[in-house]
Structures are given as C-alpha cells and as structure tokens.
Amino acid sequence: MTKIRIGNGYDIHQLVSDRALILGGIKIPHELGLLGHSDADVLTHAIMDAMLGALSLGDIGHYFPPSDPQWAGANSLVLLNQVHQLIRDRGWQVGNIDSVVVAERPKLKPHINNMRDKIAAVLELEPNQIGIKATTNEKLGPVGREEGICAYAVVLLVASE
Ligand SMILES: Nc1ccn([C@@H]2O[C@H](COP(=O)(O)O)[C@@H](O)[C@H]2O)c(=O)n1
Ligand SMILES: C[C@@]1(CO)OP(=O)(O)OP(=O)(O)OC[C@H]1O
C-alpha cells in the first residue's frame, strides 16, 4: 500500500508601506508589502510548514530562526528548496498542495498561475499539483482592515519508490 502523510500550515505577516509584496515567489505590484525577517512570503511559509508538519519535523522557525542574520531578507523559494531536500532525503515527495491566500487587496487572480509555476519548479512538480486560491476576508478583522495577509496550506506527501 502507498504510504501517505498529510500536513497543514498557516502564516500571517503585517502589511507595511516600505516593503515589496512577495507571494508564491512572485513580486506583486501593490503600494504595501509584507514585513518579516525574510521576504515574508506567507504562502510559501504556509506550504513549508505543511510539508514539515506532514513528517512531524517541526516548523520553519526551527530550521531558519528569525534570530539568525543568515535568513535576513531571504528568498522564501530558497528556503522551500531546502525543505524539499529535507523531505526527499527522508524518502518522501509531494503528491499535491492546496492553499488559500487571504488578502483584501490586491487582486491575486492574475498572478496565481505564475505562483504555481514558481512553486512547481522548486518542488519538481507539475503546476496542476499546486492549488492556490485567493479570497478576501470580507473587510472583517485585521486582514479585512488590510493590516496583514495570511495563508493556509495543506500538503499530501507520498513515499518515494
Ligand atoms: N485578494 C484577492 C481576493 C479574491 N480574489 C478573487 O475574487 C474572488 C471573490 O473573492 P471574495 O473574497 O469576495 O469571495 C475569489 O474567489 C478570487 O477568485 C482575488 O483574486 N484576490
Ligand atoms: C521565514 C523566517 C526566517 O527567519 O522569518 P520570517 O520572514 O519573519 O517569517 P516567520 O513566518 O515569521 O518566521 C519563520 C522564519 O523561519
């Protein structure tokens, strides 16, 4: 029987005026960007935490501590590549990912296929194995007030041959 594992991930970062908005490895034109130690790519962070969670390997802060200057301004796709190596070394590969980004603005739909291509390339997958959805928070709470953007991800891992 095929061995499978499932993991979920969540991340949120604050929106500020002097940062770029990076989501799924793509720079998205917007007057606000996400604040963080790395590039603050909440979508990629949620996916990494889901991958690690599927194997009970802890979370991204354990591997890339926010206190370590090595990760200051890090491209989260580089971190994703490291998490991919980690699961591959243990004999696992990603079966599929489903995720949702919650952002009041900007409209993410035009950028979603580009994000899927970027993440698929790092994980050596087909884009149709990466689900990315966007929704607003209907103006409710901190995300609805555009104080931040959050993302949720679920990842299915399949044992390699
Ligand atoms: N930042 C966003 C938010 C939403 N979308 C797209 O709009 C649709 C409707 O969103 P609601 O939150 O009003 O339900 C949603 O299904 C997405 O297709 C988007 O592109 N970017
Ligand atoms: C990505 C890391 C890298 O130091 O930092 P941040 O960009 O601040 O992101 P967060 O999700 O708050 O913490 C995880 C860290 O591993």
Automatic annotation (TrEMBL):
The keyword Lyase applies. It comes from Nostoc flagelliforme FACHB-838. This is 2-C-methyl-D-erythritol 2,4-cyclodiphosphate synthase. A divalent metal cation binds at residues 11, 13, 45. Its cofactor is a divalent metal cation. It comes from the Bacteria. InterPro entries: MECDP_synthase (IPR003526), MECDP_synthase_CS (IPR020555), MECDP_synthase_sf (IPR036571). GO terms for molecular function: 2-C-methyl-D-erythritol 2,4-cyclodiphosphate synthase activity. Signal peptide: none annotated. The gene is ispF.
